[in-house]
Amino acid sequence: MEGKSVGERCSKANTPGIFVSSLSQANAFQAECSLADRASGLPLADVRLIQKQESMRVVDEHIRNNEMYGKHKQSIKAIRRKRLRRNKKKKESLKFTKQARKEKRSRVNQTIEELQIKLQRLTDERIQGQVSHEQPDHWRNKLYDQEKAKKSTIYRAPKNLNRNNLKSLNCTAADAFLGKGTFGTCTKMLYRDLEVAVKSYQENVTRNCVQWEASIINLFDHPGLPLLFGYCLEVKPFLMVMQFHGIDGNSTTLQQVSKSGMLLDIVEWHRIFYEVADILLCVHKKSFLHNDIKADNILITKRNKCIHPILIDFGKCRRVSQAKWYKLDKKQQEKYFKNHWHLAPELILGTHCQSFASDVFSLGIMLSTIYKALQLKCKVLKTIYRNSVSPNPASRILVKDILRQLKHD
């Protein structure tokens, strides 16, 4: 048996009536061949060779009869060449896609680098444009002019008033004096027989700054915001004329009310805090930040036998897109933490710019100060101010949530 040739073995294995598939060895053929080989004692290698030859013969026969590959006669080599061409096209298309992605990624990286260079240049120019801290008497006013000049867009131009229509009251200067700020003083006067609050700006304040602040106030329409009559810009000092708000002819702030004990009812304090939050929400809906919320900047006026808050002093107001970054050294940070404790800590430390969250922090500081000073007993107010003064700006409560909690209390 071992001396027989391969042809003799094949002739014995090729028994009639065996079906072989067109592309691989048929199960029936393999089974019968294996039985025949076992009976004849053929080695396994010869059996596989016989199976391969028989499979190739059957495939060639099917190709000739056009049973597998259609009308066009193709050989195995032609099919392989076609498959190679198809794979080559796929590789070329994949290579082109990778190249396109690489080029797009390089363009994006180049754009990012250009924007970073531009941002660094603008930052350097801003730092160089600031006044050195060696001149403490003038750097605030100069920075004020520089920053306001950048924001000199007039959103809603107020009316230009005639200065001659402003008359002094028949009272002493002390009684007419309402308050003093960083950039001017406020006095009580008469404008066409109406009591008004006139803000007189310092000599170093520019015309654009006055126009910008007046246009911001004129942009809002809310009962908790001052009503602007107009401004006087013909000669210095520049003037801005607003409606007078007070109680019995006297200008009263929320800070003075909290210290005097005028309001002892928790319900009234609850309503005042709700109205203050509603005013702040009105400002935020216009995409503006107040940036100076404190009890001294909230006036108290009496309407319909009830007192209502009025938010004033929009000198530091900014658009959200123009939020300010503070760049302070350690000494200045200590000074700000001591004198401007109502500002959010991330502003003083320079980790974040001005935002809605920084306004909420200032509101929470004001609430907590009044809450502790008057020893109010209200769980809702306590929860609100605790959630408002969180060190993390992202975890602070939203203004609309403050309103919702105060409304349902």
From TrEMBL:
GO terms for molecular function: ATP binding; protein serine/threonine kinase activity. Pfam families: Pkinase. InterPro entries: Kinase-like_dom_sf (IPR011009), Prot_kinase_dom (IPR000719), Protein_kinase_ATP_BS (IPR017441), Ser/Thr_kinase_AS (IPR008271), Ser/Thr_Kinases-Pseudokinases (IPR051681). Gene3D superfamilies: Phosphorylase Kinase, domain 1 (3.30.200.20), Transferase(Phosphotransferase) domain 1 (1.10.510.10). Keywords: ATP-binding, Kinase, Nucleotide-binding, Serine/threonine-protein kinase, Transferase. Belongs to the protein kinase superfamily. This is Probable serine threonine- kinase gdt4.
